[in-house]
Design brief:
This protein has about 140 residues and is mainly alpha-helical. The protein contains 6 helices and no strands.
Length: about 140
């Protein structure tokens, strides 16, 4: 199913009313043991993520969505982040052109679960830098 960012981006309200019958919780007894303990920065990011999910999505509100829909919403959120940390539209367009222009140079045989972790790790790094004042936020946060 192809979607358009401008037409089909899921709103917070839409997330709340998704059919969640396909979702399941991973029982603690079947979760693989951690090889390492999460860093404090990772835990702080995880807590902030959970607070945002509770506020906007609700429990398991994304399970009825296809990966394409979620990925398109994620791209939209990346653009919002870039604006919030001071990138103008031209700089964002250049970044997108650079990223899409190098599509032929990347290896696309990677495991999508591992690529998702890579994306989350970069988001956590930006979050940690913002929280600790290592990146100045150009746009005042909404209260």
């Amino acid at each position: 199913m192809k979607t358009s960012l401008t037409k089909n981006r899921m709103t917070q309200t839409q997330f709340s009313f998704m059919d969640n019958t396909k979702c399941r919780q991973i029982e603690p007894s079947i979760q693989p043991p951690l090889k390492v303990e999460p860093r404090p920065e990772v835990m702080a990011f995880a807590r902030a993520m959970e607070e945002k999910l509770v506020e906007t999505v609700g429990k398991d509100g994304w399970c009825g969505l296809e990966s394409q829909q979620l990925a398109e919403s994620m791209i939209h959120e990346v653009v919002e982040l870039l604006k919030a940390i001071g990138y103008d539209k031209q700089k964002i367009r250049l970044m997108v052109e650079h990223a899409t222009g190098s599509l032929d140079q990347h290896d696309f045989d990677s495991d999508p679960k591992l690529e998702t972790v890579d994306v989350a790790n970069f988001a956590m790094m930006i979050f940690d830098n913002l929280v600790n004042g290592r990146i100045a936020c150009q746009t005042p946060p909404k209260s």
